[in-house]
Amino acid sequence: MNITRENIDALNAVVKVDIAKEDYSDKVEKILTDYRKSANIPGFRKGHVPMSLVKKQYGKAVLVDEVNKLLQDAIGKYLVEEKLDVLGNPLPKPQDDLDWDADAFSFEFELGLAPEFDVKLKGKKAITHYNIVADDKMIDNQVEHIQKQYGKLVSQNEVTKDSEITGKFTNEEEGIENVATITLDKLKGKTNPKKFIGAKVGDVIELKTKGLFNDDHDLMTFLKVSHDDAHGLDIKVNFEVSEINERELADLDQELFDKLFGPKAVTSVTELKDKIKEDSEKQFAQQGDQKLLNDVTEYLLESTKFDLPVEFLQKWMQTAGEEPMTEEQAKEEYEKSEKSMRYQLIEGKLIADHNLQVQFEELKAYAMEMIKGQMAQFGQLNPSEKELEDIAARIMSNQDEVKRLSEQLMSQKLLNLYKTEANIKTKEITYDDFVKEFYS
């Protein structure tokens, strides 16, 4: 077997594989001999079928199969030995006139080569890392939310601005009939809440779905309609009041603190607020990190310039998926995925340049820490080391989970790299301002 390569340009090459008879003949002969031993052909005893008949019936199929196996192995080894960094997979050039009755064969494969480039993490313009803090207003609101959550319901005769109103939304034509409990702060504008004030059990309130809630997604929850149906829904619904309650706030006492955090973990309102601030800012840190990750990604995509073998990649996409694509479909798919493809190359370069690796022991520790956090959410605050290790072992036996966790850990390593190597400035911002600025 002989393999040669012709570099068309910096991003494209053609590999030619010449296969001679001696490369495959012994293997083909052995397989056909085995076939002969087990072949059941009418008119011949098992094991006594003439080899000429076996070759006539199975010879070409076996030859094609063995040559294809040789090709795949040869190309794979060649890419490794030559240390070729390719994009996609080698594409065989069409050969309509291939003669399988010949002794020797030649095949050509197109290669898309990964570009060579450098990544500069430290740009001239600083990228902002937002330190999101919980301000007093937010903490007070969270304290009130806790008091409401653990408070008790007191029945009322009529609706006030602080009422929790239970009733049934109906629209016979649209098939809407759903019991829900709402509060007036969910309703949009001033007119909608006013319709409820003073209402009593048994009253029916007519409402328009368009502009009913501050968040249109609440239509899905309270009317039990699908996401598609909720989008732009503009109909009238009736709401028949069946129950009116006001939530009496729970006392901020030791009994409540123990319910929330365990015995004596928090012993005062000041400690409660400190705990809320600490827990909130841990969650906010993840959002600040995600924003930084997104911004650094955009910077790297803008600042790292390189060409790609576009024609090859579009051709490869035509056959790479479960369903073949037309040339036009592959072009559209490439345009959608080019940005992602570029970032994968940049990320791979950073991982290689900075020798970022995910070791088994640190992956196990990462899994255990994640498990510990999840258990804490369900009130299991002090799991044993053995319990954590047993759960981690079950997770680590699942290849999909290992892949997912490895990607998360590598993402964390890249984030740490950006924080230390990129041009980063830190800005403190309240959570409300962060949401207004980036998610409004």
From TrEMBL:
The record's Pfam families line, in alphabetical order, gives: Trigger_N (PF05697)
Q: Which Gene3D superfamilies match?
A: Trigger factor ribosome-binding domain, Trigger factor, C-terminal domain
Q: Name one GO molecular function term.
A: peptidyl-prolyl cis-trans isomerase activity
State the EC number(s).
5.2.1.8
Trigger factor ribosome-binding bacterial domain: from which residue to which, for each copy? 1-145
Name the InterPro entries for this protein.
Answer: Trig_fac, Trigger_fac_C_sf, Trigger_fac_ribosome-bd_bac, Trigger_fac_ribosome-bd_sf, Trigger_fact/SurA_dom_sf
Keyword list, A-Z: Isomerase
Query: Which superkingdom heads the taxonomic lineage of this protein's source?
Result: Bacteria
Broad EC category: isomerase
Q: Extract the PANTHER family matched here.
A: TRIGGER FACTOR CHAPERONE AND PEPTIDYL-PROLYL CIS/TRANS ISOMERASE, TRIGGER FACTOR-LIKE PROTEIN TIG, CHLOROPLASTIC
User: What protein name is recorded for this chain?
Assistant: Trigger factor
Origin species, per record, is Winogradskyella poriferorum
